[in-house]
Structure of PucR family transcriptional regulator:
Amino acid sequence: MLQLPSFRGAKVLTGKSNLHRTVSSLSVLEVSNADYSSRIVNSVQEEWYAEEMVISSFYSIKDSIEKQCEAVEYLYGLGEVGLILYYVGIIIPEVAEEVLQFAESKNFIIICMPENDFSLRYNEVIYEVMEAIVLNNQTFNDNFVNEALEKVSLLPEHSRSVEITLKFLSDRLKANIILTNTHMEIMNQVMWPRNSSLDVAHLIDVYAPYLLNGVKGQAESNCDCYVEYKSVHQKNGEVLYLFLIKENSKLPAKTIDKISEVVQVAINLWGDKHNEVSEYALVKAIINDESDKMRRLAHLLHIDVASIQMMWLVFIQDLSKEKQIREELEEYLFKYYKTAVIQTVDHCIIALMGNCSYKYNEYEIAAEYIDTTNSASLISEMVYAPRMRNTQDVRRMYRLVNSVGRKVHLIYEHRKLYTAAEMRSMKQAIDMSSQGEEVLEEWLAVIDPILGDPDSLKTLMTFLLDAKGNYDACGKMLFVHKNTVKYRIKKISELIGYDVTVNSEFYDVCIACMIYRLIHS
């Protein structure tokens, strides 16, 4: 892409080690802030934009370096390859060092178009890049299967799924892709374009009897729509049907063969028991963003996923004890919740709940469980995540917790129960700790007056992180009287200039303490 004439004079500012990435689409981002754009994207359908470049000038956020960093973080979180930045020197005077450091920490590509150039036009890059992409997509070379699977395998582990593979193939083919079981019940459905109102279920009902009997001509009787199918097999030998529906043009037979081969391998890799109807399959569909499969399973299992408002993630150390822990957890939760789906994915028991039966404080329900469970020694950590508005919130929180991973134990040394808010704070601290010396120095400056005093540091971190601001708990952890803790905290607050007993002031200090533990653990 960088060799195209429209990029002459452009500079790669960050992510230079990532220039091997493939680009298959362009998008323009010129909205007031990333949050608004995020709502637009997620209101349609959550996607993983693994091969897309974004064009922007940061016009609407030109005066806020913080919002520019947020925009980069938002784009990175979507899986975007990078950002093509226009009109530097005209709209923004220069690309801020904070933005460059943050992008580089994520290996996120920022390409700066020639600076101070009023003659630049978006359409030149859009035309040349999209022309190159269209020409490339017209050919399915012999290595297409390996390339397609490699692109999906490079995604984060939680994003590798059959549905993500189908989305990638649909974008490449500009066609609708549907996966059904032998009863013609739709398991996965990816539309092209995504907002298409084409009734693919009706088309399958009409054409499937002819297609499955080998009467190919029937699939072409509608001149506006061409329906093709291939059978694929799961590891257990069960058959699934892959339907390819393209409007206005027919797919070549060789292309159909290659697409079905990609789907076959994807099912073998990421679609174990793909047509299984179970709560486990439902939970997997939710966290893997397999929306159609999730809705189908929820309907078949008579589970109202819309009522899910609470999630617990219980990480266990010994899978041989998983059944024991899960049964105990089920017995406990069904005392409080009418809706509860509890399944184990890897080393994590995922509990999704709704319709709390009694007027209990839901955090106290979680705290009581971790304090009273017979399996406490087998649980490494537990995350309490309330206010799950929809399955997208469930998926995002699951991914957030997994992105924090074992670093939770570097920040919180003596606890097992964490809230969703604490997870978000930890993620911020982890991101900040990887942004270079300048950012680290800025954050550690918050607690700089006590950095040379180990006792004050230990008291502050124990008070804020481990004891959650409780004097009694902190005193017990430090083996001193609570009044001693009060005296120390008062002195520390005076030294650093933040009253850490006041909610509006301790947040920055808390983040600084997390960063300190991360880099000194």
Q: What stands out?
A: Residues 142 and 403 are 36 Å apart (CA to CA). The longest strand covers residues 225-233. Residues 36-45, 217-221 have pLDDT under 50 and may be disordered. The chain has four domains: 5-138, 154-271, 279-402, 435-520.
